[in-house]
């Protein structure tokens, strides 16, 4: 099987999610024979059905932080993946808040659903884990959930960076170096972010420093939709010289087309 990145949703704030102006089902990564669901927000199962994707084929769920549009559907997905426990399988990789809760949040994962999975892995910034062919590194996102993560996926033929929800920070930019493809959560246009999120200006700075072969912006807030993500992506591309697109529901990327040519580069990522 070839690899694919499939966008199930691009909603990036609570009003876009609430009105479903854009879907909020996160991203599906198919890496050769393995399927991962990344940041499954509300409506992920509907979107899986809409795009003819089989949730039973999912090996691992990944959730970067404890905000609803990133992890709301983890229990529903665990239930569907495992036929409600008849076929105990799969891995959940999530940040500490999702699994353990904190003063503001109960754990998102219920005890019942935890027991349906083969494994639950809590990742903290700087840690890594291997799932089948893929090595996953937890990155230093900086967001209102203090345990928020980004992820970097070292796949056999390409490297994918995902910022998660974050403001600009140097450490994260450092960790994203070497990404062939970079997915950025950019809820705000221009320089309009006033909180711990990216806007077009800070996303441009990251892309200019990481220089991936392809940058994809997603996770749009209301202001971003008004400004038009296509226009913002064009602006980033003009400023950085990096091919940049804005995600939409059902967008499919073939990541291997953007892989670095040198096999040495790939090997060095693994050791
Ligand atoms: Zn968030």
Count of distinct strands: 14
Radius of gyration (Å): 17 Å
Q: Distance between the terminal alpha carbons, to the nearest Å?
A: 25 Å
Query: Number of helical runs?
Result: 11
Report on this structure.
- The chain has one domain (4-270): Ribonuclease Z/Hydroxyacylglutathione hydrolase-like (Metallo-beta-lactamase, Chain A, 4-Layer Sandwich).
- The protein is 28% helix and 23% strand.
- The chain has helices spanning 14-18, 44-50, 68-71, 74-81, 96-100, 111-114, 170-176, 200-210, 222-227, 229-240, 263-270, and strands at residues 4-7, 27-31, 34-38, 58-63, 91-94, 119-122, 128-131, 134-139, 150-154, 159-162, 181-185, 214-218, 244-246, 252-253.
- Strands 6-5-4-3-2-1-14 form a 7-stranded mixed sheet. Strands 7-8-9-10-11-12-13 form a 7-stranded mixed sheet.
- The model is unreliable at 262-271 (pLDDT under 50).
- Zinc ion binds at residues 65, 67, 143, 165.
Explain the layout of strands and helices.
Elements: E1 4-7, H1 14-18, E2 27-31, E3 34-38, H2 44-50, E4 58-63, H3 68-71, H4 74-81, E5 91-94, H5 96-100, H6 111-114, E6 119-122, E7 128-131, E8 134-139, E9 150-154, E10 159-162, H7 170-176, E11 181-185, H8 200-210, E12 214-218, H9 222-227, H10 229-240, E13 244-246, E14 252-253, H11 263-270
Parallel strand pairs: 3-4, 4-5, 5-6, 10-11, 11-12, 12-13
Antiparallel strand pairs: 1-2, 1-14, 2-3, 7-8, 8-9, 9-10
Helix pairs in contact: 8-10
The structure holds zinc ion.
């Amino acid at each position: 099987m070839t690899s694919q990145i499939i966008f199930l949703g691009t909603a990036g704030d609570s009003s876009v999610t609430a009105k479903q102006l854009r879907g909020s089902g996160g991203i599906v990564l198919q890496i050769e024979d393995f399927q991962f669901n990344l940041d499954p927000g509300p409506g992920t199962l509907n979107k899986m059905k809409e795009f003819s994707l089989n949730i039973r084929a999912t090996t691992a769920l990944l959730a970067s932080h404890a905000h609803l549009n990133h992890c709301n559907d983890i229990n529903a997905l665990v239930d569907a993946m495992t036929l409600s426990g008849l076929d105990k399988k799969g891995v959940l990789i999530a940040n500490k808040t999702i699994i353990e809760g904190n003063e503001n949040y109960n754990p998102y994962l219920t005890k019942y659903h935890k027991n349906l999975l083969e494994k639950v892995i809590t990742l903290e910034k700087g840690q890594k884990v291997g799932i089948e062919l893929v090595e996953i590194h937890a990155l230093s996102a900086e967001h209102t959930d203090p345990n928020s993560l980004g992820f970097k996926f070292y796949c056999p033929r390409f490297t994918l960076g995902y910022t998660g929800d974050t403001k600009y920070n140097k450490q994260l930019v450092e960790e994203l170096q070497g990404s062939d493809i970079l997915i950025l959560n950019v809820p705000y246009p221009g320089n309009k972010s006033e909180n711990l999120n990216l806007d077009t200006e800070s996303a441009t700075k990251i892309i200019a420093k990481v220089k991936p072969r392809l940058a994809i912006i997603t996770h749009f807030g209301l202001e971003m939709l008004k400004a038009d993500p296509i226009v913002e992506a064009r602006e980033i591309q003009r400023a950085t010289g990096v091919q940049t697109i804005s995600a939409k529901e059902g967008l499919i990327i073939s990541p291997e087309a953007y892989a670095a040519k040198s096999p040495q580069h790939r090997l060095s990522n693994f050791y």
